[in-house]
Amino acid sequence: MGYTGKFLEVNLSSKKVQEKPLNKDLAKKYIGGKGLGARILYDELKKGVDPLSADNIILFMTGPLSGTSVVTSGRWCIVTKSPHTGIFLDSHIGGKFGHRLKKAGYDYILVRGKSKTPCYLQINDGEVNIQSAEELWGKGTFETEEFLKNKHPKSEVACIGPAGENLVTYANIMTDKSHMAGRGGAGAVMGSKNMKAVVVSGTKSIDSVHENFKKLTRVFREKVRENPGVKNRHEIGTMMWVNMSNDGGFLPTNNYQSGVFNGAEAISGEEMLDKHTYGHRACYGCLIACGKANKFTEGKYKGLDVEGPEYETTALLGSNCGIRNFGAIAKASQMCDDFGIDTITTGSVIAFAMECTKKKILEQNDVPKLVFGNENAMLKMIEFLALRKGIGELFAQGTLAAAEKIGHGSSDFAIQVKKSELAGVEPRGSFGMALAYSTSDRGGCHQRCWTPSAELRGDLKRFSFEGVPKFVKDSQDERAACFSLVLCDFLPFDVPEMVEMLNSATGFDYTPESYLKAGERIWNLTRLFNAREGITADDDVLPKRFYKEALPEGPAEGQIIDEKLFEAAKAEYYKLRVWNKKGLPKGKILRKLNL
Does residue 478 carry a pLDDT above 90? Predict the structure, then answer.
């Protein structure tokens, strides 16, 4: 079937739990995961709902391929209104939880309301209970998961840490002690509902419509196994990008003041493999196994045993904070995971605070020597941020909110788009990412479109917007469809073969064209949601630093985002999308997409 045919609705205010039938027409139109979640969120919420109020909902979504034999089908996602940005949020996550949720008999869980006391949701093959979590409140994600797995054997756990409980707006949701729905603050939404965790176990089968489904997935699996890019990602994971970004001149350094870091080699994937990596880690059903188990056998962090860190974490908590010690970055990553806080935003917040200190516009006594390169200050800041104590209170809502309080022109170098801090690519070194960041439906995000590979290969001209608007638009549509299946960023596939597997699993009659049209429909729907919350073309912009300051060194030395050329590229993007000058979808495209 591809789908279980039902979902679970939980009202934490009334403690009412209901099984409800899946709307199959909407499932076909929006696929699942991101797309179906976006439709539900748009229909459920009224304009202006406070993301941290009982009126917000949070959705734990799977897709039609979740938990099947398709490679990377262990992925799932969270959909909610973001407390960090105030707009649409889908946050994707690996591990085994999505597979378990599907085997428990549900396509998704919809949670509304707020519990009076700390609780967790426990599901076992259709038996559902809301249980007390008072003894877990205040605990880190590692201890919480271990406790709940011991209490409920053969289960998977998605939980929050102290950052979510304290309503830090970039708190995340953790599972498997190493996988997180990191961006946008879904953990704070759980915290606002006094919801510590969801615990799921299930043994039901996941069936497909056609008998040839497993054959198709076997053939596809072998193709993936032999893919050179997959082999490379298995060997080194996302950390291959540290040296590649530095060599390309777009590795964020010292709060995006440069794209070159002279300590990059010491924190690179190659250095990690040579000195620390002892194993590979994979999500359910994945042969890529991009996760790396690392252990430190000497020095200050001797005994530290972690999975990761990944590239984005290393870029933001490493080079962007001027940190040259890979052990410090790994420790920071582990702390963020246990506290339940997004590593990308956390790294950006700390780097911003370091620059404010250097410019002498931030005074505080909580964290001594809060300057670039001070790993002790970085680690101390993580604790203050997650617990919202001292200086952490100032930064609990991210860089832009802090800049508005600090003043002195600091908003010019608060590195965010639509309040969401940027990921690990310096846009003056990757013009494609400048447009991708600015038009992303959840704020400054690298997952909607990734242009550096195309720019380094020469498929896109470097330091130019030529061809960029179409590339970004097409990538966003394709990713919206893929994230609705729900599959991984790293899975190499051709759209026709994925459509064949989707149809075989569900009985649908998608063509490659209609599949991509569904992605375009989903992208326009999230734009409508954001427009309802006040987003216009004026918000599809970059921080002023990128328009005013040229990169000082490296392969991208002298590069700057020319504001006129950027606006022209944005106008071309709007034209391709059939949006008006305010960035709103025109009636023509809404009718074409049946919106």
Answer: yes
Three-state secondary structure along 163-225? HHHCCCCCECEEECCCEEECHHHHHHHHHHCCEEEEEEECCCCCCCCCCCHHHHHHHHHHHHH
CATH number, position 522: 1.10.599.10
Q: How would you class 110 by CB atoms within 10 Å of its CB: exposed for 0-12, middle for 13-18, buried for 19 or more? A: buried
Q: Is 115 helix (H, G, I), strand (E, B) or coil?
A: coil
How many domains are contained in the chain?
A: 3
Residue 157 shares a structural domain with residue 241: no
Domain boundary among 178, 201, 224: 201
Tell whether 243 and 374 lie within a shared domain.
Answer: yes
Question: Does residue 267 share a domain with residue 180?
Answer: no
Look up the CATH number of the domain holding residue 397.
Answer: 1.10.569.10
Euclidean distance between CA atoms 595 and 588, whole angstroms: 10
Residue 211: the pLDDT is 82
Which residues have a Cβ under 8 Å from the Cβ of 415 and sit 6 or more positions away? 252, 255, 256, 348, 351, 352, 399, 421, 422, 444, 543, 545
DSSP one-letter code for 293: E
Boundaries of domain holding 105: 6-201
132 Cβ neighbours under 8 A, 6+ residues apart? 117, 118, 119, 120
Kindly state the tokens that stand for 352: 């911003």
* Lookup: tokens for 374: 């001070």
Query: Tokens representing 208?
Result: 């497909």
Angle at 63 between CA 61 and CA 65, to 5 degrees: 145
Rounded Cα distance between 182 and 168, Å, is 12
Residues facing 174 on adjacent strands: 159, 180
In whole angstroms, what is the distance from residue 550 CA to residue 132 CA?
Answer: 54
Per-residue model confidence as pLDDT tens digits over 269-295: 999 999 999 999 999 889 899 999 999
Is the pLDDT confidence value at 1 over 80? no
The mean pLDDT value of the chain amounts to 96
Q: Which residue has the tokens 């708190």?
A: 171
Query: Do residues 172 and 245 both lie within one domain?
Result: no
Q: Measure the CA–CA gap between 455 and 557, rounded to whole angstroms.
A: 16
Q: What is the pTM of this model?
A: 0.97
User: Is residue 67 located within the same domain as residue 100?
Assistant: yes
Same domain, 259 and 408: yes
Contact status, residue 144 vs residue 159, Cβ threshold 8 Å: yes
Query: Is residue 357 within 8 Å of 370, Cβ to Cβ?
Result: yes
